[in-house]
Amino acid sequence: MPWKSKGAKSEAADHAGARLARQATVEVAGLLGKRGMSRTDLARMMDVSPGRVSQILSGDENLTLRSLAAVADALELDIKISFVEPKEDGARRPHGLGDGSDAFVYAP
Question: In a 10 Å sphere around its CB, with 0-12 CB exposed, 13-18 middle and 19+ buried, how is residue 83 labelled?
Fold first, then answer.
């Protein structure tokens, strides 16, 4: 509700969620590039409009697990999500982004 103020944890979760959505869309764009596919190709494979794929990959919408699952299904891929401890230095970094690993791992 707009009149309610968010707590610090809620705002941190919102920021982490936005970062995760951006990472997922970058990952999908990278996969499309590696396969020489366009967003229109993905839309055809998903049986949705190109506009819908643009919405999913724009990062502007709240990317759902169902949306990611639909993309993975169309690309005949599995999704693996892992929760990892932060590095010893306390820094948290995304892993698996474009490095050819078989896991999609996110650390905020």
Answer: exposed
